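Dear U.,

For the methods section draft, I wanted the exact inputs and outputs in one place so we can describe them consistently. I've listed the two proteins in the order they'll appear in the manuscript figures. Please don't edit the token lines directly; just add comments below if something needs changing.

First protein:
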Amino acid sequence: MMNRRKFIKVAGAITGAAAAPAIISSAFGAGHSKTQKIGCLFSSSGAMANVEGRLNSVVDMAVAELNAAGGVLGKTIETVITDPASDWPLYAQNGRQLLLQEKCKALFGCWTSVSRKSVLPVVEQNDALLYYPLHFEGEENSDSVVYMNSPPASSVLPALEYMMSEDGGSASRFYMVGSDYVWPRTINKINKGYFSSLGISEESYKETYVPFGFSNFQTIINDIRDFADQPGGPPIIILTVVGSSIPAFFKEIINQGILASDIPILGLDVLEADLEGLDTTSLVGHLNCWAYLQNVESEANTQIKSNWASFVKSNGLPYKPDVMIDPMVSAYDGVHMWAKAVEKAGTFEVPAVKEAFDGITFNCPSGYEISLGSENNYVARGVFIGSVNENQAFDILWQSDDTPKPVPFSPYA
């Protein structure tokens, strides 16, 4: 049974992950006039911990930058970090404590959509903000959430369009395998609507779902082989499993000797960190799509990668210093965009901060200037399609010309 004790640790300018956690404690009082708290809701244990936990540390790094530059509105920013343990109700419980007991004005957190939906009523009922760093299924538009990443219209559909093009292999059949929750099911519902709009028949796609933490993919990959052997054109795998299931899926792909030239994989949640520990030689050519890839060439990207390597080393963090992933960048961007909105509003009070969103921009490490507009709380970002290389990373195959206007609700859903 999952441990439901709620541990929270407090970070000032710099916090090491190895520091002993305290139970809801703070070096300052909750209302200390020289500080302002923000809260983190990223799991460092459970099925999602293999990548999610490092987002706590990158928020710490962003806060350290703010404090080194004088803080926000003259106050030192203090990070209160929790471990929801990949347990969806615990995200809501920890979030409520961060808001009501720790007096945080903004939360940065959640990975899966089910964790976000668990926290959503908490921030809405308590006049707070959640900065959510993952690309996701859309179909939501709360003024209490800043959606830092891309809805399907800006990421998934361009990737599918690429896969169906001659450059992408002219895919015409699709095997969709995902974890059994709202994000994969909604993404695949949108995919099927998109296929239908193109005249692609139901016989040309198949979908299956597995529980969180699922690791035995042998039978499913055998079924994918059977699907690929059927007539009707080139097949691809659309992968929406999450957490520890991602490396487990790729390990079975390696075991069965399936190459990208046989059946390409479009891994919609696959990140550089998911490839750690894998021999990617036989995975070369499988694809992903995100709003950031660590191989992008930009001055801001060079800087954040250098800063992260130094931060990992100086704080003894248990992460590879040379791996930077999209949700880390999105969480980092979120902290700086929140600070900009607070400075523009002249107050930490949430209603005024929301009013200040329109026109907020940030020079993202992706090389794009990302922005918030007046129509919704979705950040306009660029998008990349990457191809696995031999060095546990992704080469950039394609990127958008600009930052497409976010479309929260898909016409294909």
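Second protein (the one for the lower panel):
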Amino acid sequence: MSRRTSAPPSPRQAAPEGVVRVGLVQSACGDDREANVARALDGIAAAARDGAQVVCLQELFAGTYPCQAEEHARFAEAEVVPGPLTDRVARAAAEHGVVVVASVFERRTPGLFHNTCVVFERDGTQAGLYRKMHIPDDPHYYEKFYFAPGDTGFLAVRTSRLDVGPLVCWDQWYPEAARLTAMAGAQVLFYPTAIGWLDGEEELHRAQYESWDTMLRSHAVANGVFVVAVNRCGREGELDFWGASVAYAPDGGTLARLPHGAPATVVVDCDLSRIEWSRTRWPFFRDRRIDAYGGLLSRWGG
């Protein structure tokens, strides 16, 4: 159902009725911003050549991950939306006729910044925008210094290809975020991601990765949706980003898993009929006790 592309492939046949082809572009980032952007744009082109109709880039694809330290100078990397960076992505979407899901460091106004996911239609117009709702603050992930919490709520962006559920990285640990995005009508949950291993925690590395992977698969099963997570790879400072971008079907089946340590692009077939098939076999939405979930609005306890 998928094929990794390391060289320009032959064009694929058109997708069957009801099938949407989704491209995942996993990259390594360095200090050369232009080279990072070029690699992302090349990934969009490669995925499109291999038949992708929707393409997802990794979190903050234009630069090295900025949040390993609290450095005011890094606010200079942020850009307005729309702006020069998103204009380039929009042109790529239009050139290749694909929907693009792109994560950027947004300068909303002087002194106010967001970790933002922008969705572009296949003609290059902006279809929607989501601002990361859950903002972490952990060693080498000091995102609260940089980003205000999102205020868009959880949403689905309707495009000509499918209804996109944009979420970002830390959001992937929250079942509430996945549930509400699915309930908004998303057919695929997209998680642009920057997650990796920290030096000195080698004994935890396998468990950390497996926990992350399990959460993603669980969102697919619990909500009867496709899940796509695109993670960066490679060494940056004290973080070793583990790659391993993944796509899951609504029944939890694995559509693709990229390598841990190397850039790669893959295209997967998402047969949208599998959403209803899964939800009628595992009718979790039917059996939800919405009258009994008020405690979720409390910080702790009922």
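Candidate sentences for the figure legend, describing the second protein: Residues 1-10 have pLDDT under 50 and may be disordered. The chain is about 25% helix and 30% strand.

Thanks,
Y.
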